[in-house]
Structures are given as C-alpha cells and as structure tokens.
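User: I'm curious whether this sequence folds into something compact or stays loose and floppy. Could you predict its structure so I can see for myself?
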Amino acid sequence: MSVDAKYKTKATASGGGRDGKTTLADGTMALDLTVPKELGGPGGDGANPEKLFALGYSACFLGAMRVASGQTKIQVPQGTTVTAEIGIGPRSEGGFGITAALDVYLPGLPEQDAKTLVETTHGICPYSNAIKASVDVTTTTRA
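Assistant: Here's the prediction. I'll summarize afterward.
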C-alpha cells in the first residue's frame, strides 16, 4: 500500500512516556501525560495516548463523513456529532491492545441512510483504515 502524504506533523514524547510530556514540533501544542489509575498510575488531569486517539478519531471520522456525503449523496444533518470511546487492556495473545467504539449522532436522518453513510465513512476515514486489520470498531448510529 502506498500513501501520498499531503500533510505531515511531528510530535516528541519525553520523560517516562505515559507519564511524561508530548510536544508538537511546530510548538502549537504540548501536553503533560499521566498514567490512568486503571493502568496503575496516579490518574489526574493529564492526557494519555487513548485520550489523544479518541480526540483524533472522532474529529477525523466526522470530517471523513463529509467526504462520504459527497459520494453517497446523503446529506450530513446539522448537529451531527461523533463520539469515540477508546479502551486499552491486555490481549489474550499477549501484549496490549485497544478497543474502539463510535457513537454517531445523525439527527433526523433515516436509519438506512445513516447506516450507509457510516459504512461509507469507514472506508474513507484514515483512522478506520489504519486500525481495521487489528481493532474491531463498534458503531452505534442514532438519529
């Protein structure tokens, strides 16, 4: 598979990884990282990779839905939202894995149109494409 990247960004993690800091190379964002209590850390207000993934996936999927709308001719309703829930835990095969669930709110859209739009979006969204071989993404579509 070949990707013609039109945009790239860089971030550097320092400190202890999940309990350090991450900073974008262009200086527009820097975040303190905290290990969640559920993973043996102190918890608190810091970010973690799962929070960052949820932020990115929800925004990316909503953006990709606009492209899917053009392909399917199904209008994305005003007020549409995408909520991504990302989990982390041990895998039965060893190591750790992630879970992903998307809640897609498409106010007033007929059920079949909503399903078609979400399915088409999964084929377009870079996050969905990046994880489709290793993560089962569950979706809830609400109108």
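Summary: Helices lie at 49-72, 111-124, 126-131. The longest strand covers residues 81-90.
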